[in-house]
Amino acid sequence: MARRPGRSVEPPANESEVVRYGFLLLPEFPMYALIPAIEALRIANQNRGRKLYSWHLFSPDGKPVRAGNGMSVPVEAAMTDISWFPNLFICAGNHPTQYGTKRTLNWLRRLARHGAVLGAFDTGVFALAAAGLLDDYKVTLHWEALAMFRDQYPEVAVSEQLYVIDRDRITCAGGNAALDLMLHLIARRHGPALAQIVANGFVAQRMRRDAEPQRLSAQQLSGDARAPLTRILHEMEDNLETPLSAR
Predict the structure, then answer these.
(1) Which residues, including other chains, have CB under 8 Å from residue 52's CB and lie 6 or more apart?
(2) Average predicted confidence (pLDDT) for the chain
(3) Distance (Å, rounded) from C-alpha 224 to C-alpha 38?
(4) Distance between terminal CA atoms of the chain?
(5) pLDDT at res. 16
(6) What DSSP designation does 18 have?
(7) φ and ψ at 100, to 5 degrees?
(8) What does the alpha-carbon distance between residue 196 and residue 177 come to, in Å, rounded to a whole number?
């Protein structure tokens, strides 16, 4: 199938314009992906001495959202109070299909119709797929949910990598990959030097590339391709959806 041209996600020509990122928090969202993303933007602002980026938290009903670790996070507004937003990431956790309500999906479709750049951390990509917003796009998500996503949306091209930027869709595996993604976005708009300063603030030596793997292979973990541990790890990886017996 031919790929449609799509819109570019390149930043506006006016570098002084504040880039606004919104985060739609769904229940059980992973805090370990949200915090690095926001902190990367904060550190960029701090080191440039002016406001380069702003971040805004939304929820389906405007009420605080409980993260996967049990913490409750307040938000600025309900999603339905936001008629449009330029850049939005959906943050979802262990039950990605449970909170993709009709109202949420319709709101995402409306944002897309009006030219918003839509993205997802971790399993937030399920909401984009359910809304029908991933036709001819390539995406990624956390490796633990890859098999389930492929089963439910076999028509969507998905790759196990840290993050994928495909025109006006930006998806990320979550966790530390959220930092890698933000570093890339900062470097693209304000240069690699600032991105490295932000990475240094995280005590991160380097920015990982988008196509780097999310996890070590069984052989890398055991150090020996023929070792019994390698075989066991391979079998475990191949049976994530149906865990094996210890016998």
Answers:
(1) 18, 19, 41, 44, 45, 189, 190
(2) 88
(3) 39
(4) 46
(5) 72
(6) P
(7) -85, 70
(8) 15
**DSSP state for residue 206 in the 8-state scheme:** S
- State the residue for tokens 């959220």: 178
Place of tokens 């001495």: 49
The tokens for 216 are: 């070590």
C-alpha to C-alpha distances, 48 to 38, 89, 154, 194, 202, nearest whole angstrom: 16, 24, 43, 8, 16
The pTM score is: 0.83
Q: How far apart are CA 31 and CA 220, in angstroms?
A: 28
DSSP at 172: E
> In this predicted structure, what is the pLDDT of residue 11?
45
Work out the burial of residue 9: count CB atoms within 10 Å of its CB; fewer than 13 is exposed, 13-18 middle, 19 or more buried.
middle
Window from 106-110, 167-171, 240-244 with minimum mean pLDDT? 240-244
Which amino acid makes up residue 173?
A: A
Tell me 193's DSSP state.
H
Provide φ and ψ at 211, rounded to 5°.
-85, 5
β-bridge pairing 163-166 and 169-172: antiparallel
Task: Count, in order, helices (H) and strands (E) of the chain.
Answer: 8, 11
Q: Structure tokens of 99?
A: 């909170």
Q: What are the backbone angles phi and psi of residue 34, rounded to the nearest 5°?
A: -65, -45
CA–CA separation, 133 vs 122, rounded Å?
A: 17
List all residues 6 or more positions away from 196 whose beta carbon is below 8 Å from its beta carbon: 207
Residue 219, SS3? Answer: helix
CB 17 within 8 A of CB 77: no
